[in-house]
Specification:
With about 600 residues, the chain is α/β, with parallel strands linked by helices. Helix content is about 40%, strand content about 15%. The strands form four sheets. The chain has a six-stranded antiparallel β-sheet.
Length: about 600
Amino acid sequence: MCSICGIVDYKNKEQIRRDLLEKMGEVLVHRGPDQQEVYVDHKVAFQHNRLAIIDIENGLQPMKRIYNGNTYVIVYNGELYNTPELSKIIEEAGVHLQTRCDTEVVLYMYILFGEQCATYLNGIFAFAVWDTSKEQVYLARDRFGIKPLFYTMIGSTLLFASEVKGLLAHPQVKRILNQEGLWQLLYMAPTTINGKSVLKDIEEMPTGCYGIYQNEGWQIKPYWKLEAKPFTVSEEEAVYTTRMLLKDAIERQLVSDVPLATLLSGGLDSSIITSVAAKNYAAQGKQLTTYSFEYENNKKYFKSTLFQPQSDDDYAAALAMTLGTNHKILTVDLPSLVGLLEEATYARDLPGMADIDSSLLYYCRAIKQEHTVVLSGECADEIFGGYPWFYRKEMLEKDFFPWIHDAHQRADLFTFTKQKKDEGYAYMKEVYLKSVAECPVLDTDSPSMRQSRIATWLSVNYFMNALLERKDRMSMASGVEVRVPFSDHRILEYVYNVPWEIKFKGQSEKALLRAAMAEYLPDYYLKRKKSPYPKTHNPLYEQMVWKKLELILNNPNARLHEMVSKNQLNDLLQQQNITWFGQLMSRPQLMAWMLQLEFWLTHYDIKIEI
């Protein structure tokens, strides 16, 4: 994995400044600490920070190739999982590949297939190609947005970067939170609208899209769309095909020239990945390393809930023993959990998921001491129907994002939004309704199938996007690459069209996934109810974050001091059951999110324009 950034201007060559480019790249060096390099000509400047994974000696970027007398230059952040097949296509076209790295493969796929090159790529990626033959820059992002790519226009200058902080390092980029961004923060965070950031004039390349910048201007087009198709095979065939797709996706992602491990929570998704990986390693005479996460003294304070019925602690270690992995348990202490809230905000360029972010940042830093690549279980719930809103009808009937339990809860805390609260809610509700209207469905869908499609569509485009963003930023801030096998687009394309009655057979969430991978896990794990990413249950955590928040609210120089209604906050904190985002965000996390918001507003010097 890596970071990329660039400056493009066809009209004003004075904007192509190496010093500004290097400043943009410097703040992204955590994503690629191994190698740094730039490419500059009179119209284009590219910078690249490399985290070396494949063909470490020969994969330096920006990479330049000359084909039929034309020059092409690429900066690439990602990992391809169908490199062997694409390499064969390229070589059959008469090209001799000089490296084993997928960067060269991506570049030649662009050279040979032009704007549609991304349709051939199976992987996680964001890249830019300077094409001298057409005098254009081509940018593309993977289908689920696993790898980030942000851009902005300053007059005739296009700036792009892997993270928002890369753009903000350019002195002409403004740091303005406008009304649209504010509504996203208060009603949706940490999710955002696809193709948007919360800052004015800073956009994100939409998932599954490519962009072209030429002298005539900038345009964005989709290269991939999810399609609703009739289901024409038997349940048995669906189970078999799902198993083959999953096994292939996992095994493709085990290729690495540096140490690789898996994250093993003991839940269904990570256990499936680990089981397939462990058997693959054993066949090669190798032992797989696995990691599980715990919080200090969590067993003492854990309380079962509808969303988290069991603690993960014992499950992971027991399965690791069964599979024969080299298992390591990482435990985060409370001071680190609180102390990393600000660094997690900086990694994400946004107030995120509070201790759910800071704990992952802690774990990734610990993992980096021994491993550079890990496989993780994200995306299975969104694709196979693991969340309550897939089967609890009332959650999809409230005309708002189903994981937001109380849309007004955060907005009510802020004094400067009271006059416009209804306007903000109406705006975000319209975003929701528009997204539902865009969901691919068939006229022949049953009510349950249509509901499952909508739940999948919303989950993939919003909830999953936020979780993948979190995983990318916390891991890359630590110099670790995380791969997510369930995000293989072939799996979503297939499972999306399997009837809900099969995916929820026996009233069991992810029933199709359980049936498909039954041979890989003991029944004890195969039938285990979903357990989300863990959080701390220690009441001392809440006391620690409240103490820090109280100091901010009493500080007249703090950004939150005049923004937050203390009476409203005190009333809210008296409530016992606060859940403001997903199943993990309760009262301590709300307070920690406000700590992150204060840091973000102050450290980034955000100007609010409403």
